[in-house]
Amino acid sequence: MTAHIEENRSHPHLPDLLAAYHLVNQAEKGTAVETAADLPAVYRVEAEDPAGAFAADTVLLATPSGADAPAGCVVLKAPRDGRAPEIKRLWVAPEARRKGLARALMAEALRRAAASGAPAVRLTVWSWRDEPLALYRSLGFATVEPWDGRPDLLCLEKPLDVVERLSPDVVRAHADGLAALLVDAVDGGASVGFLAPLDRVAAVSWWSGVAEEAAAGVRDVWAALGPDGRPTGVVTLVRADAENGRHRGEIARLLVHRSARGRGLGRRLLATAEAHAAATGLRLLVLDTQTDSPAEHLYRGAGWTAAGTIPDFAADPAGTLRATTLYYKRLG
Predict the structure, then answer these.
(1) For the chain, how long is the longest CA-to-CA vector?
(2) What burial letters (b/e) apply to 82-95, b meaning 16+ CB within 10 Å?
(3) CB 271 within 8 A of CB 293
(4) How far is 13 from 306, CA to CA, in rounded Å?
(5) Which domain range does residue 50 map to?
(6) How confident is the model over 238-277, as pLDDT tens digits?
(7) 79 with 209, same domain?
(8) Is-contact 36 47, C-beta < 8 A?
(9) For the whole model, what pTM was predicted?
(10) What is the CATH number of the domain that holds 136?
């Protein structure tokens, strides 16, 4: 089932959704009340004036396909006191459940949290709420040390854009998503070895070759996986095969999707590859990038040294020859 997700803390149906959430919540806690007017003040204000109660937060509503009113809501609380943003008030009307609305609301909330640069998202859930808890677990939330000491309240957290090392089989499993990163990079003008337009089949084939190199032990692959499990960024480390160069590796194909930029993913991917290189005995890393490209700012900021520039080294996606700057970084 498809759903229309919108942000609107002033929607006329939002008070009813929040009131229904709180009335059920109070009943589950054994403190049932009859109407929204009888709710504790801290909850009553949300149902009476959600625009004011959530003025600093993101309120999302889900309207089922073909319906004329939202049947679900969720609130993404703004980060406070250096803590991760928190998801609150996830609610779907009983008649609209088991149609994917809750998952759609959560996916959009997680996407927005990731786009804001948040490293993680947290939430609380009563231990007896089996269905919401199963949903959160399926989305990658894990129980953490409680920040709220109320009995039976579980505190969960999910890291965003988790950087994982990919085995050859996982590279193959993510071939479509990794290919989309490569196509996006070429479409965006990045000089990464291909001319535009890059065919998706060709991009998938390239990653299939990477999987073979990973299986042979000559290339390591890390990807940042977004809330939906699809790659939002990737980096690879290629080990030198010459006998006198076993101390050296090359950073290759550091890619971040244009929709995921501006939140430090490139730096995290690079740091992950560097740390692994050092931990496995490499003492020198090299890379090359198009001169005057945005990537140069990233590498210089991460402590890389420019070794020199070669004019007309490679064509950009449009076919124009561009200069390339070579960089190196000593490890340890």
Answers:
(1) 79
(2) eebbbbbbbbbbee
(3) no
(4) 58
(5) 3-159
(6) 999 999 999 999 999 999 999 888 777 898 899 999 999 9
(7) no
(8) yes
(9) 0.62
(10) 3.40.630.30
